[in-house]
Design brief:
The protein is of the alpha/beta class. It has helices at 12-26, 69-73, 75-78, 94-106; strands at 33-36, 50-53, 55-58, 61-67, 87-89, 110-112. The protein has a single domain, classed as 3-Layer(aba) Sandwich (Rossmann fold), CATH 3.40.50.
């Protein structure tokens, strides 16, 4: 899964991702989550298979973050050695384009919710 938002940002997307991950884990399905890092994030918690991408503030939007474009562009390198069956993107912003690129590079389907 790739998303432009996740906890500590509390919203419907973060909650949806958490729900998906919990339900899939009960079915024995492991997922890796790629999300922005937040300066106020507490270290620890439920960070299993979570990759935090360096990010910066979005002008005029103090709650959201923009993930590093260069890190997203080279996402396939960052995930080297990791295999996937599909790419699931949760948001229509930078994560969407990174997910499409990753899916194309790996010849995988890309699901968007």
């Amino acid at each position: 899964m790739v998303s432009d938002v996740y906890f500590p940002r509390v919203n419907g997307v973060s909650t949806s991702i958490q729900t998906f991950r919990a339900a899939l884990a009960k079915l024995g399905i492991q997922g890796t989550l790629v999300v922005p890092d937040y300066p106020e994030r507490e270290i620890g918690g439920d960070e299993w298979r979570v990759i935090r991408v360096p990010s910066r503030a979005v002008p005029g939007d103090p709650e959201d973050r923009l993930m590093s474009p260069s890190t997203l562009y080279h996402l396939d390198r960052a995930l080297a050695g990791t295999t996937f069956d599909l790419v699931h993107v949760q948001t229509p912003l930078a994560a969407h384009y990174a997910s499409l690129r990753l899916a194309r590079q790996r010849g995988l389907p890309c699901l968007a919710t």
